[in-house]
Amino acid sequence: MAPPVKTRERIIQASLELFNAQGERAISTNHIAAHLGISPGNLYYHFRNKQAIIAELFARYEDQVDSFLRLPEGRALTIADKTFYLEALLAAMWHYRFLHRDLEHLLDSDAQLAERYRLFAQRCLQGAQRIYQGFVDAGILLMNPAQLEALTLNAWIIMTSWVRFLCTTRGQAGDLSEAMLRRGIYQVLALEGGYIAPEAREAVDALYQKLYVPLEQVI
């Protein structure tokens, strides 16, 4: 028999579920406690306020992204790696979608979180640039340094703004689907369209088809 989930972990998971479904601003610590059937005092024993819960969720999101946004060791990149990176990004965006929806508000509310996010963004941009360079080195992308830098920045802008874009066109965060986020990943891949090496075109086109979600399902 599996051991019971500890209260602290239950708070984290319930908070993530509620934030994703209703948006972080709509949920208070009292909502979280009531959802779990525990007293507010029990919740405060584990987390002093809602910002502390958000900080823990961000740390987990940060760890998840840091774990895959890196080059493999001892080999060149392949098209299969492109699929891996895109699917891993999709999974992280979907699991922590409330962070992307309410990002500016969250950072304005917590100076320490804002500084952590700034450093996280720098790491992500550096990691993504190394990965794109890896695809250039592997002969999959044909780009010069300026194009690679612009691609990295444009991909980051799409990744960090896609959920907010969906919320402006679809309404509440609870109305979002994984397919809608998949279209965001497709948009990132589409940025590379003019730089694909001819010998990689067939494999990349297959990836386009796998990720494509019709626009009418998105807006």
TrEMBL record:
InterPro entries referenced in this protein's UniProt entry, alphabetically: Homeodomain-like_sf (IPR009057), HTH-type_Tx_Regulator (IPR050624), HTH_TetR (IPR001647), TetR (IPR025722)
Keywords: DNA-binding
Domain HTH tetR-type: 5-65
DNA-binding region ranges: 28-47
Pfam families linked to this entry: TetR, TetR_N
Source domain of life: Bacteria
Name of protein: TetR/AcrR family transcriptional regulator
Lineage of origin: Bacteria, Pseudomonadati, Pseudomonadota, Gammaproteobacteria, Pseudomonadales
